[in-house]
Specification:
five-stranded antiparallel beta sheet; mainly beta; Ig-like_dom; 19 strands
């Protein structure tokens, strides 16, 4: 039998948010779980935070899925450190896994992108070229995904986006065009309309 945690290491959680750690046990024939224990080591101190099937030792801690999922709500400064899950079988043998939980200072950055999609069954290793307002940005790797299919709009703003796909079977072009047609204002409230043109044979999604 073995146990491992599905979370990456380290686990980053913002102050005041909920920490979720999920363990997975690979059982072999003849092994049955008798107890699951979660502990937190901070500096040189180590404390037990939850046990299954006994009880939770703190009000902000809960266990789900027969002790395999640990949930700590409203995480504070004392909740950061090294978490260890110990799975004990009916013979008393212990199996452990651990993760370091750190404070997340900067939240993940959200982004909007255009995706140039082609049916792979019809294209042999296609190449992608992106034009923004007629300017080729294909050499600017900071605005494109590694495979060239996705263009990140936050890094490359424009009105006319064109994707050109080429391979030994030919070339296909798709456009995504945005623009404000008109706007109407009533006092301090304004409304506007955005128009989009997409040319086929393949789709551009975002």
């Amino acid at each position: 039998m073995s146990v491992h945690l599905l979370n990456g290491d380290p686990v980053q959680v913002a102050l005041g948010q909920t920490l979720v750690l999920e363990a997975q046990v690979n059982k072999t024939p003849g092994h049955e779980i008798s107890m699951v224990t979660w502990e937190l080591q901070r500096d040189k101190q180590r404390e037990k935070v939850a046990e299954y099937p006994k009880r939770n030792l703190k009000l902000d801690v809960s266990l789900d899925q027969q002790g395999m999922v640990l949930r700590v709500t409203k995480l504070n400064e004392t909740g950061y450190g090294i978490y260890t899950v110990t799975v004990t079988d009916k013979n008393g043998k212990e199996y452990t896994a651990r993760r370091t939980v750190k404070e997340a200072v900067t939240p993940p950055e959200a982004s909007i992108s255009l995706y140039c999609d082609v049916p792979l069954t019809r294209w042999d290793v296609p190449g992608f070229v992106w034009l923004v307002d007629g300017v080729d940005v294909s050499n600017n790797t900071s605005v494109l995904s590694a495979d060239g299919r996705r263009l990140f709009l936050s890094a490359q703003k424009g009105l006319n986006y064109t994707c050109v796909v080429s391979s030994s079977q030919g070339t296909s072009v798709a456009q995504y065009i945005t623009g404000v047609i008109s706007a109407a204002c009533d006092g301090l409230i304004c409304s506007s309309w955005i128009w989009v043109l997409v040319t086929l044979p393949f789709a551009v999604c975002f």
